[in-house]
Amino acid sequence: MVTGPRSPTSVALLRGINVGGNHPIAMSDLAACFRDGGHGAVRTALQSGNVLLAADPASGPELEDAIERMLAARFGFAVPTLVRSRDELAATVAAAPPDHGSGALRSEVLFLKHPLTATEVLDRMPALRDGVDAVAPGPGAVYFSRVAAQARRTRITRLMALPVFRQMTVRTWRTTTCLLALLDEPLPP
To answer: What CA–CA distance (Å, rounded) separates 171 from 179?
Structure first.
């Protein structure tokens, strides 16, 4: 039986599963993989590759590497993984620009895989559309938003075409704040 904290301490953000029919993994199989790997307080969230878990340490490159090896062994393909502790995720949410997530915007968080930094991403960022797109650096992340009424005019796809994009995973602002709320919920007895 897995012992440890009663509540999740971290969220694993998996990149590229269940997107457009590629790399399908049932959430029940994903949770079982993490439990079999020795993690406690495991539960999946929002059907899009988010796994809440208890881990010690709660984040870091070594944990990410171990999870990636575990997933590849279980499912037969590479699943890039970023892990954020509850406190790291809270810092990312707290540092967002004031209007990030407002109703007038479509807002995302681009989570960066260590050792990639927000400065490196912004230095490589292609020209975005003035008056439509906005970016800002954050702790382990880049905040991206676009004016909802003009979302089709965004140029973010230019970033998605760059090799550096493979070192990121994207979550909507709503998903990001929902994950933080879930990390703050106690598990049922």
So the answer is: 10
> Same fold for the domain at 10-85 and the one at 90-179?
yes
pLDDT at 1: 37
The 10s digit of each residue's pLDDT in 71-92 is 999 999 999 999 999 999 999 9
Question: Are 100 and 107 within 8 A, CB to CB?
Answer: yes
Q: Which residues pair with 51 in a beta bridge?
A: 12, 44
Instruction: Tell me 125's DSSP state.
Output: P
Half-sphere exposure for 104 (CA within 13 Å, toward CB): 7
Phi and psi for 148 in degrees, rounded to 5? -55, -40
Q: Which CATH architecture is the domain 10-85 placed in?
A: 2-Layer Sandwich (3.30)
Q: Across the strands, what pairs with 43?
A: 52
Q: Give per-residue pLDDT as tens, 96-150.
A: 999 999 999 999 999 999 999 999 999 999 888 899 999 999 999 999 999 988 8
Q: Are 25 and 61 in contact (CB under 8 A)?
A: no
Global pTM reads: 0.91
Report the CATH fold assignment for 90-179. Alpha-Beta Plaits (3.30.70)
